[in-house]
Design goal:
Layout lengths: L7 H14 L1 H4 L9 E7 L3 H14 L5 E4 L16 E2 L6 H20 L17 E5 L4 H13 L4 E4 L1 H7 L11 E5 L4 E2 L2 H14 L3 E3 L2 E9 L11 E9 L5 E11 L5 H7 L15 E12 L10 E3 L4 E5 L6 E6 L16 H15 L7 E13 L6 E4 L6 E5 L5 H18 L13 H5 L10
Parallel strand pairs: 1-2, 1-11, 2-8, 4-13, 11-18
Antiparallel strand pairs: 3-7, 4-6, 5-6, 9-10, 10-11, 12-15, 12-16, 13-14, 14-15, 17-18
Helix pairs in contact: 1-7, 3-7, 3-10, 4-10
Amino acid sequence: MIRTLGSFSVVQRAWAGVWRASRCLATGCSSAWPRSCDVLVVGGGAVGSSSAYHLKHRAGRDLSVVVLEQDSTYEKASTVLSLGNIRQQFSVAENTLLSLYGASFLRRAPELLAVEGQDPVDLRFFPRGYLFLATPEGLKQMEENYKQQTSLGAEVAWLWPDQLRKVYPWFTFKDNVVAGVLGTNNEGWFDPWSLLLGMRRKAESLGALYLPAKLTGLQYRQEEPRQTTAVPTRSLTTAQVRLKSGEEREISFSTLVVAAGGWSGEVGRLAGLGTGEGVLATPIPVEPRKRFIYCAHAPDGPWEGCPVFNDYTGMYFRPDTTRPQYFFCGRSPLEEEEPDPTDLSVDYSFFDTHLWPQMVERCPEFGNLKVKSAWAGYYDYNTLDQNLILGFHPVYTNMCIATGLSGHGIQQSPAVGRAVMECVVDGRSHSINLDRFSFDRILTRQPLKEKMVM
């Protein structure tokens, strides 16, 4: 796999210290292994590391936080295989608010994630905006989205076809394009490697401990019912984990945070979710879905000020700011086109048949484009409604679930980590009311659909 993001080698060198520091734990050094903790976070990617950071930032030494991350190199982590895009243009209000906080966090990252004696975090945030287009059929929905987004504080501009052609003369806007909305601030892209490194480094400086181990089992105790009509509840007590050496260890905890991305459903199954009766018959409906990202050279580019372009067909592209005339592009497949997620191999024919024709139709200068590299990454795909699941489970009352962002994870991870902290410390998320994202909608099969999906 060839990575083309300019920060790759810098961040890779920075991770070398993390890998060396975890070597003793990986080999089972008994003196370094914790027997218990207050909060055990399963998953050390963006959401898990943001949760650890926000918990330690809020509670300090009063709360011990341990993070399990089986892929200590992050080779297959969704976070580092992401493009690092961020937008506020959503149809679900909570998503807009989550990403607004994310943009604020990105801008303040050098201050928030500062660690004494270490270089400041540089996320290389490019606020170039997102451009969404509307057809006649989608105009009413875009108007509703626009009104809601601006009421929530998103900085977006409405553009009619004549304005679109003036601002973007290199695009072809046919008669079926009746309007567009452009993010004028807080939308664009950043370096996901540096965000993850910064949050993890800061969390560790505050006392969070990362263990390179795989969760293999969970133990629980039955709680006494408080009233005869109440659903019987349980408390998770102990995690079994396996080191790379194959050795098994245990760690007890007070609260479990499930932030395992596409593998959160597997974590739920270790607690019997999806295999039990009643409420326990419902699994965490999250699984890994593979997505392709192509890097292409377009010799007739670049186009000054090109934003992240989102077509109503689902095709998107944006420039590579580290190399002129290079563009990243992709498209989420239809349900019947879903690729096999068992590995991260890339299907180049998908670009030729499903992506390139749409790009040329929108911008004829892409006609002599050449794909130079590509990679695949995972979405933590919520099969119910492709939206975040956030909050405590109704049976396992000390299991806080934070997963299912379905492609929004890297941009919303700062706000989701803050919400996890509020759930653990205060009982519920309150900076942003995320009650609609609770597990209750999973139990009742009432999806909360996002209409602006990429």
